[in-house]
Amino acid sequence: MNKKNIKGWLKHGDFILIDIILMQLAYIIAYWMHEDFDNPYDSERYIFMAVVIGFCQLVIILFSQNYKSILRRSVFEELLAVCRYMGEVIVAALLFIFVIHRYEVTSRLQFGLTSVVFILLSFLVRCFRKYWLFKNREAKAENRSIILITSYSLVQEALDGLTASDLYVDFKVTGVVLLDEPNENIEREAMELEASLDIPVLPLNDEAITEMGHGWVDEVFILQPENLPFPRQIMDDFMEMGITVNYSVPAINDDKWPVADMRKLGRFRVLTNSIKFISAGDMMLKRIMDIAGGIVGCLMTCVIFIFVAPIIYIKSPGPIFFKQQRVGLNGKTFMMYKFRSMYMDAEERKAALMAQNKICDGMMFKMDDDPRIIGSEKKDKKGRPAGIGNFIRRTSLDEFPQFINVLKGDMSLVGTRPPTLDEWQKYDMSHRVRMSIKPGITGMWQVSGRSSITDFNEVVRLDREYIENWRLSLDIKILLKTVWVVIMRSGAS
Length: 493
What we know:
Elements: E1 2-3, H1 13-34, H2 44-63, H3 75-100, H4 108-135, H5 137-141, E2 145-150, H6 155-162, E3 172-178, H7 184-197, E4 201-203, H8 206-213, E5 219-222, H9 232-241, E6 244-247, E7 261-265, E8 268-273, E9 277-278, H10 280-315, E10 321-327, E11 333-339, H11 346-350, H12 388-394, H13 402-408, E12 412-414, H14 421-425, E13 440-442, H15 456-468, H16 472-488
Parallel strand pairs: 1-9, 2-3, 2-5, 3-4, 5-6, 12-13
Antiparallel strand pairs: 6-8, 7-8, 10-11
């Protein structure tokens, strides 16, 4: 899954919001410069002028190109852009006043001083904002990994175009794969290139594809050489794995992988395919819902902790929380938290119990009457385990600390379950698609009777169905169904 790039005037929403605030601040300062230090919004005359300027500013934002390429402008170009921007706002305001014939409630001095103050403020703040963005772009780049795929002769050109010093980029090139026909020369050149670039450089083969499939790869960029055939099989492999593909070639005439988005990657104009595109607005709403749910969930976790922590410790002395490395979005690992429902040696005993695993091929681990669960030796009247660990798992109380992961951004309320590191290493290309979206506390297969599903391919099918058909209403539906499943204690073991 991949987030769609914001287009049009919303692309630089931070600069737009700053300018809107600065315009009103400049208006207040201008008022103080020729009047007393009073509130200009107490006067009907100055309220009218403020509204006119604000309205005309919004019109200019909507219909002008002032914010286009703002991150690539020089200091002098930025000063000219700010002057032009303010000039357009004033001209629009004067035309509006002329049309409605309200000359008596306007002040040319207020307009003039507002223009001067705004130009100074906006120019300085824009320059500082750009300086801050470029200064922190390396840290930002650590959040997004891109693999470059091209021929040996085009590697340096591609790297220069992707990471030029005058570009603001939020990604880091973490590896190179060469499309050239494998031979001794290519292998030698790949080793030399790797030493000079200090990133992995691999010739194209099954080993390289496997390594990418089990590593942290958010996207790949294919710069197609003219003298080599288009790597269609590679495209199929990446789409099978759910990895977002960027390529600088004409649109592929294959309905199976339709071109869904065109954007800029460094200096390159690329066509981007992904299993699913999400608009920036939908992504923002999903994150807002995660934050709101995460806060509520963390508060509930604190209450649950008061009651379950003493019981867990009495039955099995040790940490109350269970921490484990899991694989998250696009293969990036994170530390997941749960209430500990198993004995301290549970992981060591897992290997001996693999024969009783209900999930085929060991891609996940599920078994009936798991003896590693705290208190599982205690049975009820029907002979079923009745320990505190079993109660915690049946009621899904062990999942509540994952709301911490949701607030941190490692997980979402709804998504796919994050695999363990050993499970991740067993994934084939079709399985990797599960992690093309942020993992979640609940998801499609969890509310589809998770204990009754023993075929991992069915789990993958449900997760893929969720990703391909994602919409905010589907998340809400799954959350409501999750509440019902937990209350009814169905689908858990």
